[in-house]
Specification:
The protein is of the alpha+beta class. The protein has two domains: 39 residues; 239 residues, Jelly Rolls (Sandwich), CATH 2.60.120. Helix content is 15%, strand content 35%. Strands 5, 7, 12, 13, 14, 16, 17 and 19 form an eight-stranded antiparallel β-sheet that branches. The protein is elongated, with a radius of gyration of 24 Å. The chain starts with 5 loop residues before the first helix and ends in a 9-residue tail after the last strand.
């Protein structure tokens, strides 16, 4: 067996270094390319799910809008992604529809969103019920802190003047899709971010006749928004998140409105609360940033 000498070991070390010098840059470039492809969602298998267009799934109410007897989903409702999501430009984009809720009613707000930094409002609205003095809603800050807030009240002493829950702190804008769910059971507000509970607070919730408003200064994309006149449980919230961005509503008897925002602003809850769009666009190449 040949004896290993210092010269032999030096030659082997030199050969290894030459190998690394020769192929190291190629390995580094491949790693960078793979990282870029991953960030774009190329390796995200959920992005390859089949897509469906506007109205492919909807709620059927045989007795008309506002009724709850024999309500059912119909169409292609499981295992699909939306063909489009709705883009808001951070300046003039909105979608509104009227909805009346009696004071003290329970409710749930559901929204999927991807946020960019807003160039206008400091606290742009993602989703909420609003009038001149009072609001419960979901907002995102514009200070680079990446916080999402649930806020309510703005008319003391009838309502809390500055109540809020901070959720997803530092999480946005990260060019990723997130789900926020906001429930109120008559006593307690609960917040959920990507299926996980983030906090509960006692509050005097102010409800009345509100205007459903999205995207006051919001810059980004919104999809699959839902309103219920009931407070969903933690298990139901988790189910909605696990369904993904193309998931259908649950608890249909208490579904007030469902705007998939999949190529239009129509209400597919069967309650005919169609939205009025202003300066919005529909993106058919939206799956980058969606991981589920």
């Amino acid at each position: 067996m040949p004896r290993k000498t210092a010269t032999t070991m030096h030659r082997r070390s030199q050969s290894a270094m030459e190998y690394l010098m020769t192929y190291g840059w190629a390995i580094l470039i491949i790693a960078v390319v793979l990282g870029a492809l991953y960030s774009l969602g190329v390796f995200n298998m959920s992005a390859f799910m089949p897509k469906i267009g506007p109205g492919a799934c909807h709620v059927f109410r045989p007795n008309g809008p506002g009724t709850s007897w024999n309500v059912a989903l119909t169409g292609s409702c499981t295992g699909y992604l939306p063909q489009y999501v709705t883009q808001f430009n951070g300046q003039s984009s909105t979608m509104t529809t009227s909805r009346s809720i009696s004071s003290g009613s329970n409710f749930t707000l559901v929204v999927w969103f991807l946020s960019k930094r807003s160039p206008t409002n400091q606290w742009p609205i993602i989703f909420g019920y609003f009038d001149t003095h009072r609001y419960p809603g979901i907002r995102i800050d514009n200070f680079g802190l990446g916080n999402v807030y649930l806020e309510w009240g703005n008319n003391p002493p009838t309502c809390d003047s500055s109540s809020y829950i901070s959720l997803g702190s530092g999480a946005v804008p990260d060019r990723r899709w997130h789900q926020v769910i906001y429930t109120y059971n008559g006593v307690m507000v609960s917040a959920y971010f990507d299926g996980a509970g983030t906090g509960t607070v006692n509050t005097n919730m102010c409800l009345g006749t509100y205007t459903y408003t999205m995207s006051v200064g919001f810059n980004g994309s919104i999809a699959n928004t839902q309103i219920y006149n009931a407070s969903l449980t933690g298990a139901q919230v988790k189910y909605l998140y696990n369904e993904g961005i193309g998931g259908a509503p649950i608890y249909l008897q208490h579904l007030v409105g469902w705007w998939p925002l999949n190529g239009d602003t129509n209400d597919y809850s069967g309650n005919n609360n169609n939205g009025a769009p202003t300066a919005i666009a529909y993106n058919g190449s939206w799956t980058s940033g969606y991981f589920h």
